Amino acid sequence: MDKRNALVLQLELVWWAITAIVVYAVLYPIHQAMQVWPFQAWNIGFIIALITLSRYIFLLPHTFIANRQVLKIGLLLLMFPLTFAFISGLNGFMTYVEEHTWDDLTGHLPGKSKLATESYIWSEMLFFGSGCIIAAPVFAARLMRSIWTTRNRGEA
Is the CB of residue 46 less than 8 Å from the CB of residue 128? Predict the structure, then answer.
């Protein structure tokens, strides 16, 4: 493994560690307040996807996929169904809250804590969910630009 690949791998590992810390920090208040969180998988997926896609949008030439055209094409094609999956997941959360209210999830909490927890969950789910819905097509456009410039100019 040459020096550049080793540095790219180290950078990738650092970013995954930062992502894990952010996931833990965002979900910690929810786990402290609630006994059951049925949207935990979607929540973790939203956080990981937003951080990873945003990172790849801006730092694509410094990642391991920078010169792998076939992988970029595969990721480009994956972004379309992934966008719709993110929309479905966020819609499922919003529909659940509207139909069942918050009582099933936060009914055991006292007044101020209940409202604060509900507000926190609503805000962070909308932030990370809508961020993913926006980041996936932007990443697809970035991949398309990268594929074009690599093919026609020899740049990443």
Answer: yes
The one-letter amino acid code at 14 reads V
pLDDT tens, position by position, 51-60: 999 999 999 9
Give the CA distances from residue 16 to residues 39, 136, 151, 154, in Å, rounded to whole numbers and listed in that order. Answer: 22, 18, 29, 29
- When divided into structural domains, the chain yields a total of 1
* pLDDT interval class at 43 (50, 70, 90): very high
CB-based contact 146:60 (threshold 8 Å): yes
CB 12 within 8 A of CB 28: no
pTM of the model: 0.90
Of the two residues 35 and 120, the one the predictor is more confident about is 120
Q: Are the beta carbons of 132 and 46 closer than 8 angstroms?
A: yes
Helix%, strand%, coil% for the chain, nearest 5? 85, 0, 15
From residue 78, how far is each of 33, 71, 84, 85, 149 by CA, in Å? 35, 10, 11, 11, 20
Amino acid at site 71: L
Dihedral of CA atoms 127, 130, 134, 140 in degrees, nearest 10, equals: 100
C-beta separation of 144 from 58 below 8 A: no
